Amino acid sequence: MEPFGAGIVPPEPDHYIARRGDGGGAWRNGRGGDTLGAASVRLGSIRCSEIEWRALMSTVAIVGAGIVGASVAYHLARRSVSVTLIDRAPSPATGATGESFGWIGDAGGEWPGGAEDLRASVLADYRRLAAEVPGVAIRWTGSLRWGDASAQPGGGARLAHGQQWIGRGDIAALEPHLREPPEWAVYTPTDGGVDPVRTTEALVQAARALGARVVLGAGVASLKIASGRVEGVLSQAGLYPASTVVLAAGADVGALCAPLGVALPVAASPAFRISAAAPPGLIRTILDNPDVDIRESRDGHLVMAAFHDDGASGVALERFAQHLVGCVQASFGGSVPLRLLGHGIGRRPMPTGGPVVGYVTPDKSVYVAVMHSAITLAPTVGRLIADELISGEPVAGLRRCRPQRFSKQ
């Protein structure tokens, strides 16, 4: 048997895991237990390579139950890896995920660094996830963008594949309640929206059903370091040993890595999210203009996203939210009843140069996953991280996401 030099480092030989569907039995090594005598073994109905077998004998702890951490947990658990998902909050998606707008697509927007390499898989991975996981629902509404100087033919905008210019008549057909449709807009029919909280909760539930351990309300977490190696996650709820720790805690990943002497430039960008009650079907696509983004997240429920002054008081934010709701109401007939339901600020992680995904320690005991937009990329990144951790082989799609790029600067 070749040395296990990559991927998840296995624990001591007498460790074992119990797997759902295997009668609760333990798979052990040759010291008084079952042996690995072939190039592959069958676990239940799954045939695993030797490398995957040894990966199954390991444990992964994930810090952060936002959409990225939940996706990683699900994709590992569905391949029978022993996973513990840990979050300081009492429920999933209480950080940046919970205050996200939830717009997904593979055409518009910015795709810095390695995000560009992932964009081609975004929609297919979301469709796969919606088919696999109960509770993951996508509203494929398309999007309309207008209002900036480039959002008109000849204005300098470069349309991505699948995007098209449409005129006032077509805009009115898509948004019949809009009082004054613009002359031109960029239409992206493949865009959609998800409920970030419900999607994350669904992934956590699916991971738990597959055998993952979920620890919520754990308080502040830190890395358990002994003899220079990370051995797990220490929190107010206890110690969670692991052979690999995945840090998926958004803007907090940099602080978690600091004791390792690893510097990750991850800024926190505030995002203001407003929710409002409205007549069902008032808005039918995702509307994007320089002042506010708007979409219907579910029947009768609108969500909006806007820029704001990071130092604004709670009173000022309340007034701003009421102002935006009033503007939307005026744009859709004036007499249409809209009611502010709430608002909040999310700290979006904005790593320099695009997503940061990969090992940050030479012994491969710590792995990071932080990116923007996490809502868009989470299904694809979760799948690729699971591939990488289990196989022990670098995944080509993550090549430009590596944290080592910062050590070369």
Largest sheet: 8 strands, mixed
CATH 4th-level superfamily of the largest domain: FAD/NAD(P)-binding domain
Which class of the largest domain in CATH terms?
Alpha Beta
Structural class: alpha+beta
Radius of gyration: 23 Å
Proper CATH architecture of the largest domain: 3-Layer(bba) Sandwich
CATH topology of the largest domain: FAD/NAD(P)-binding domain
- Count of all domains: 2
Work out the number of β strands.
22
Q: Give the strand order, joined by hyphens, for the main sheet.
A: 8-9-7-17-18-19-16-20
Number of continuous helical runs: 10
**What distance separates the N and C termini?**
39 Å
Helical coverage, percent range:
10-25%
Mean pLDDT: 85
Shape: globular
Spans with pLDDT under 50 lasting ≥5 residues?
Answer: 1-46, 53-57
Provide the β-strand percentage band.
Answer: 25-35%
Give structural notes.
This protein has 409 residues and is α+β, with helices and mostly antiparallel strands. It folds into two domains: 1-139 and 191-264 and 352-409, FAD/NAD(P)-binding domain, CATH 3.50.50; 140-190 and 267-350, D-Amino Acid Oxidase, subunit A, domain 2 (D-Amino Acid Oxidase, Chain A, domain 2). The chain is 24% helix and 27% strand. The chain is built from ten helices and 22 strands. It has helices at 50-56, 67-77, 115-118, 122-132, 168-174, 196-209, 253-257, 314-331, 374-391, 404-407; strands spanning 40-43, 46-49, 59-63, 82-86, 103-104, 138-139, 143-145, 164-167, 184-188, 192-194, 213-215, 221-226, 229-235, 238-241, 244-247, 266-277, 286-288, 293-298, 301-306, 339-351, 356-359, 366-370. The strands form five sheets. The chain has an eight-stranded mixed β-sheet with strand order 8-9-7-17-18-19-16-20. A hairpin with a 2-residue loop joins strand 1 and strand 2. Helix 2 packs parallel to helix 6 and helix 2 packs parallel to helix 9. Residues 1-46 and 53-57 have low confidence and may be disordered.
